[in-house]
Amino acid sequence: MTVLPTRVDPGSAEHRAHREAMLGKLDELAAEHAKALAGGGPKYLERHRARGKLPARERIELLIDQDSPFLELSPLAAWGSEYPVGAGMVTGIGTIEGTECVITANDPTVRGGASNPWTLRKALRANEIALRNRLPLVSLVESGGADLPSQKEIFIPGGALFRDLTRLSAAGIPTVAVVFGNSTAGGAYVPGMSDHTVLVKERAKVFLGGPPLVKMATGEEADDESLGGAEMHARTSGLADHFAADEPDALRIARRIVYRLHWRKAGPDLDPAAPAPKYDEEELLGIVPSDLKVPFDPREVIARIVDGSDFDEFKPRYGTSLTTGWATLHGYPVGILANAQGVLFSAESQKAAQFIQLANQRDIPLLFLHNTTGYMVGKEYEQGGIIKHGAMMINAVSNSTVPHLSVLMGASYGAGHYGMCGRAFEPRFLFAWPSAKSAVMGPAQLAGVLSIVARQSAAAKGQPYDEEADAAIRAMVEQQIEAESLPAFLSGRLYDDGVIDPRDTRTVLGLCLSAIHSAPVQGARGYGVFRM
Question: Is 371 a residue whose pLDDT tops 70?
Fold first, then answer.
């Protein structure tokens, strides 16, 4: 074994300071997560329970296997917007009767489960995960349909939800809808387009138009039950495949449906005998400096997440600001690319391109650990070919077909974010630590660039430059970019799949690797033209 050594001293003042800063960020994160967990608040939760209904997360808890983990995705969706944190929906990956599934659940305590623009984005991301990883999709439905004041942002793109359900089915990936309450208008197509449906007695209401709309459109008098009740759909329309007596019964039936799928994943399960890292995961809290300008050794992170801290480094003496190498994580082989000193030079770019090709040749998933300020700039580097070498790395990432996982540990700026497989390059999963920041460039650099451009413009016009106004603008821009670089802001826009506690990194990655291996893992055998 090639066990990584460590230089981390948990008792040092530096480590303790980094740890305290990280714990402070985790406390802030917990406060934001609590908003999502609270749903619509005590008043609406109490009213929901008084109707004999379970909250969304309790439904999920009864659905998945007892004591099994649930990897919640996008819990901060809509953060910083006018809509509630969490976007009125819970999504994630859980195990049902031994089968890993994507699960979505409307939260009816939040505006009756109505879908806003962020709900839509969150649901579409869950569908994407189900399709790319060949995971059955189980939808726990109780929604009043679109949040009508925001319909202009929902109606046109919202059709993708129904498209996805049919594409999943066409790809042989099972879809299950369990309807607990309203599933009206466009929402009626969720059970209508799912492979398997379960409707709850006297609770489920599935119709294209409710009694008021029917009255307005046709003059016909009708009640909820005759229009779209579970009994009617079970006996008359045939929409209901299964008629449930109550919510626990509906979840029991859903579990039996998944059991009868006899679903087989393409790859192996997690290896329960995989050796744990040699070093304490608790030490991850003190590795990333609070000042991201200060470099840290990513091998210290790798040593605390891979099996047995065993890591075979690739080209360790070449392109040293990017660490690359091979390891296993919960028994799954992975190739790891981790930024060391932040900046990517030509050597690092070429090294990364070769390493990515090797991983594809051997059908090994790739893990990108971000801490980069981007590709190096300057006359020497431009003349040395940094553009074509950076493009070579981005080409390799773009055309790689093995699954990619990304974790933003520190900085993830500029085209370095792209080269390290940022969201636009479609990693299967992307998570951030509370210490992460991502933007076109650092706040001070961006404000400085704008200042230089403004100075040059004033000089070209022969006008005096207002230094006082410049200082105020720079401060304002720095504050804006700093706020827009933070994990909660980016996670709120679904630019990642969640902000995680560094100590949970190994577990989260293991769950993701297991989900990824539900589909075949196959590397690319061809690439676009590399500019040499």
Answer: yes
